[in-house]
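It is worth pausing here to work through a concrete case rather than discussing structure prediction in the abstract. The textbook approach is simple: state the sequence, then state the predicted structure, then interpret. We follow exactly that order.
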Amino acid sequence: MKFRAGIPSSEITPKSVFLRRREFMRDAGIAAGSLTLGMAGVVQAAKKLEILKKDPRWRVNEDLTPLKDVTTYNNFYEFGTSKEDPAEYARTLKTSPWTVKVEGETGKPGDYAIEDILKPHAIEERVYRFRCVEGWSMVIPWAGFPLGDLLKRFEPTSRAKFVAFETKLAPEEMPGQKGYVLDWPYREGLRMDEAMNPLTLLAVGLYGEILPNQNGAPLRLVIPWKYGFKSIKSIVKIRFQEKMPQTSWSLAIPSEYGFYSNVNPEVDHPRWSQASERRIGEFFKRKTLMFNGYVNEVATLYKSMDLQKFY
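Step two, the predicted structure:
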C-alpha cells in the first residue's frame, strides 16, 4: 500500500522491524492485539483499519514521519515525563472495555460504549502536520472521522458554547498519574465552532492501524492548527457546557499555556521562541507556519480576536 504518490510504505515505515518482534499480547474490542517492540517496549497495534476515504484536501504534501518515531517519541505524562516513557509503559493501559460518558448541555446524555461511538462513522485517513509547543513537529497519517459528526449525534443544546474532554483516570494503569506533574485527570476543551470545524479529527488509528496505547488509544483528538497538548488522548468524558472549561496546562501554568493554544510563530512561549521548529528526522530547523499551515481553514474562527492576548 502507498501512503504518498511514488513512496511505498516500506520506505517510510520500518515495517520489517515491526513485524518480526517477539511478544504478542491479547486484547479485545477494537484492538485485536499489540506487539512489544525492542528495548523501548513500543506498543504498536497489529490490527489493520478499514480506511474508506483518502480525501486529498486533508493530505499534507510533505514527507511522513517514520512510524518508529511517531510511536517512540511522545508526550503522554500519564506514563512519565520522558519522551520514551509512553512507549515503555503504556502497555499497562486497558483499552477494552471502553466507555465514554456524555453529559452537560446535550439532548442525549449517557454512557456510550466505544463500539456505539464508532459504528456509524466511516474511517478516513488524513495526513496532518503535528506541532508540539516544545518546538518539534511531525507529519502523521491519522485515521479517524470528524469530531463534529460525533458531537451532532449527541444533540448539543443552544447553551452549549464549549465542549470539554477528560482522559482516563487509572493510576494503576497509568503510573504517571501517581505523581503531581498535573492535577489528574487530564482535561482539555474547545469552543464549539473549533470542535465542529471539519479539520478537528477524532482519531482511532495511525499509519492504517489501530491507535497504539502511547499515542492515545483508543480515542484521541487531533487538532492540527493547535499545539499538540490540546489533542487530548484516551478520552473517557465529553461534556457540553456554556462556560469555558478549565484545562490542565492552563490550570498548571496559566502564564505559559492559554486556552486557545493556536500555533502562532508571532507569540513566543515565555521561555523560548515559537518562530521555528525542528521536524523529527531533520537536522535544520524550519520556519513555523501560522496556524501550523492551516490558515485557510481556521483563520476566520479568530478574525475578531487579539491573538497576543488570547494565546
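Step three, interpretation. The first strand starts at residue 2 and ends at 4. The mean pLDDT is 87.
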